[in-house]
Structures are given as C-alpha cells and as structure tokens.
Amino acid sequence: MTTPRTRGLLSARTVAWIELVALIVAIGALARDVFDLKIPGTASEDRQKIQIDVPESGTLSRCATLQGSAPRIKGKTLWMAHISSDGRYSFAKATYDDNSRWRATDTFGGESDVNQRFRVVVFLVDQETSSFLTGIRVERAADGKPSDYWAQALPPGATHESSLMVTRDGKRGQPYCGQPEA
C-alpha cells in the first residue's frame, strides 16, 4: 500500500503537520464531549433548541407574555427583546419553569401602537450584562409607568438565538404591563 509519504506527493514535514492538526482536533472534540464545553463563536446544539412559540391568536395584546423552550446554559441568562418598526429595542428577562420552558412578559409599544409589527428576539447574555439589563428594567417613572429606556441593538456579547415577527392586536386603550386597574 502506498501512502502520500511514500509516493512523494507530500513531504514528511507536511504529513507530520497534518497528523498533528488532526490529533489536536480529535482531542478538542473529546474534551468538548467529556466536559460539555461550549466553544464561543461556533454553532451548538443549544442554539438549535431555543424556540419561541407562535401566539395562538396570531396577535398580541399590549401587555403580552411570550413563551418557548430553551435549555438552561450555565453562566448565561435568557432575555427577550422586542424591536419596534422604528428600531427601538425593549428588553424583558425570561424565567424558566421546571421543564425548560421559558416565558417573558413585556409592554409592546405605546397606547396608540395598535396593529404594529414587532420582531421578537430571544438571546443569551452573561451574568454581568444580565445584571445591567435588570437594573434598567427596574427603573420606573414617578407615576409607576415602565421606564422609557430603549436601545438600538442587542447588548454587546448577546448571542442571537431565535426570532419571530408578531403583530399587536387592534384594541385601543389597553394597559401597559403592571398598570393598576382603573
């Protein structure tokens, strides 16, 4: 049996480098499988498993809860953002139940934003970024309305996981999330 080395197609040095690279790749794959390591910047099975459920009615009320499924990933927190047609990103932290189901509630638009479309994005951030987003979410105006904080993009380090287009229903006068009953 002839090999590239014996046929003279590749030098012995080139073959040694190829074998070394193959060994490093094999060790990396073994370490990933044994220690369940996630390599930043690469596709993972977790990314494929994060889902947003389509609302049954096809539309959302102003104060809406979306849900889906996602594995819990150590050191990461799952957040939901909804992006308005003018590019404003608003954020809500997701919570998990016991079956890897997540849910997040937020106010979609202003009182007059009926029939508006929003893009919903579910993403992961590290604990430091999650703490920052949590601090922003708790800021409230003196009248108790949600803060008017918004951003023009996902936070640095956010890993985009899943997105869905939704439409707010056509009902006017709906309360924002947490608004006291009149």
- String of helices and strands: HHHEEEEEEEEHE
Write down how many β-strands occur, each being a DSSP E stretch of 2 or more residues.
9
User: Strand order, biggest sheet?
Assistant: 2-9-8-4-5
Shape: elongated
Task: Kindly provide the radius of gyration, computed on alpha-carbon positions and rounded to a whole number of angstroms.
Answer: 23 Å
- Poorly predicted regions are 36-48
Give me the secondary-structure category.
alpha+beta
The chain-level mean pLDDT equals 79
Estimate the strand proportion.
Answer: 25-35%
Note the total helix count: 4
Main β-sheet: number of strands, strand sense, barrel status?
Answer: 5 strands, mixed
Helix content: 10-25%
Q: How many angstroms does the end-to-end distance come to? A: 87 Å
Description:
This protein has 182 residues and is of the alpha+beta class. It is 25% helix and 29% strand. It has helices spanning 4-7, 12-35, 45-49, 127-138, and strands at residues 51-52, 59-60, 63-69, 76-83, 89-93, 95-96, 101-107, 117-126, 159-168.
